TrEMBL record, chains A, B:
Name of the protein described by the UniProt record: N-acyl-aromatic-L-amino acid amidohydrolase
Active site: 180
Main subcellular location: membrane
Gene: ACY3
UniProt keyword annotations, A-Z: Cell membrane, Cytoplasm, Hydrolase, Membrane, Metal-binding, Signal, Zinc
Residues making up the signal peptide according to the UniProt record: 1-20
UniProt cross-references to Pfam families, sorted A to Z: AstE_AspA_cat (PF24827), AstE_AspA_hybrid (PF04952)
Domain AstE/AspA barrel-sandwich hybrid: 222-303
Amino acid sequence: MHLHFLPLLSRVAVCGGTHGNEMSGIYLVKELLKARKKVMEDEEEKPVSVMLVLSNPRAVQQCRRYIDTDLNRCFTHATLSGPMSDTTPYEIIRSRELNTMLGPKGSPGAVDLVCDLHNTTANMGLCLISYSDCDWICLHIFRHLQRQMPDVPLRYIHFDVSNKESYSLDSVGKHGFAMEIGPQPHGVVRSNVYTAMKAGVQHMLDWVSFFNSGNVSEGGFVDVFTMVKRFDYPRDSETHDITAAVHPQLQDRDFCLLHPEDPLFQTFSGETLRYKGKEPLYPFFINECAYYEKGIALSLARKRRVMIPIHKMGRGN
Amino acid sequence: MHLHFLPLLSRVAVCGGTHGNEMSGIYLVKELLKARKKVMEDEEEKPVSVMLVLSNPRAVQQCRRYIDTDLNRCFTHATLSGPMSDTTPYEIIRSRELNTMLGPKGSPGAVDLVCDLHNTTANMGLCLISYSDCDWICLHIFRHLQRQMPDVPLRYIHFDVSNKESYSLDSVGKHGFAMEIGPQPHGVVRSNVYTAMKAGVQHMLDWVSFFNSGNVSEGGFVDVFTMVKRFDYPRDSETHDITAAVHPQLQDRDFCLLHPEDPLFQTFSGETLRYKGKEPLYPFFINECAYYEKGIALSLARKRRVMIPIHKMGRGN
């Protein structure tokens, strides 16, 4: 295999509390800030600059996903450069502050890598979510985590959205991904989920240091889940209330292949509704709390194998 | 054994949405209202009057526990008869409406039985929570549910609080209990939890009909868990932030005996904190989402066996 080159990652941002009730990232960022204070008192050298960011402090304080609107949908170029007024939602104002701090998005001044920490109520294990299936930095990090954390189910999710449409905080960096871990109820900290996230972030930073030091990052195959479809809950046409829950045979079975005619929902009166698609697909974000209001009961993905080339830091390409 | 008598239960209330983000009770009450509409169109006779109540409609609409204050703490005699003004919290106003509808609390006009539906993020199975360990109506219903639902873990929890201090909606009825089911994240419906609650309510109403028809309800022994102690999370003295999560070895182990020196918390830096009590006790409400703000990480109970006498509807005592 040919050796390819990728540029130095000198500035990394680790963000928590982009959603103010997703507790692992909030407490992890606070803990890392505390630890840094101690380390700085010991005057240790830093091989890479790591910014620690609490993204939505007002939502964190109120333990809500957001105050006015979902911050993690505010990072499109259009929203970041739209008009401002006295009635501009808090999160739109905050998204510009974050874009100044970590970006500007799409500019040479943007940080090299954004890792944005999230939780889900779905049984998804640890997922990296990215807008690209050929961002080798994200994919090498994913592979490193898979090797270092054999006891944690790890998946790479690809949202096939153009750079113009990309809307989340991690899109502000030159490279970026969301680290999404579940299941955990929003507003709750589960120790095992916190510990997995802490390990994931540490392994990610270790890989960045390893790469920056000029080491070769081995290539290899990984599975990439590309989102292709979403389903809403069945709803009452008048009240818009949901009329069914995710079927007990589907609940918690994220990333287990869903076949045509498999149970999808169970109505509140007890009836089973089935998957009517023609193609077997992989469900994920099954019954995620925050997606009721977005009209998403589950997402479906196609899986494909991606070959990561061997890379080394340098000026080659 | 002697046969004892208990009065007819002619008016029963089933309440959901006392907490606006505990979804099973909300969708169950809505579903029962729909079914009733159909039944009424069929002009069926009703042996017992069942009121179906959505307790906190504004909180339900916003999918929040409450708007201004926790409705399920507003039913003390003091709060129900306190002064009112323009700034009275919504839930205090609503508690009086409910007291008029279902009470007045402590009066002969109060409904005979209130069953208030709740969810918890804790792994508690189905619990009946009551202020009395000798309310035979509640205990007979509990025993009936235990027999009818052998696959669901069922417990009876006793909060040893005087009638004067009792604060929850179910205290408005002559008899009353909360039906608490978990684990389920707040804001989420899990089909299995919904189905268990639906079965629990149906079996409860079946028992009431059976009892009202003059049948003998057999006595027997049941375990009662009486709450004796609560622990808060360890917190930072300045920020009041929690500094530890429930220990992974304790998480999800509700009603498994906790012994002195067993792990209680794991700090965010990785340290284990242990249970320093002298007496082994039964933990429950472990890591309940809504109790972070109340300063409760878990509750502890003593278990004892209670003998339920044989009862029959009548005027005996």
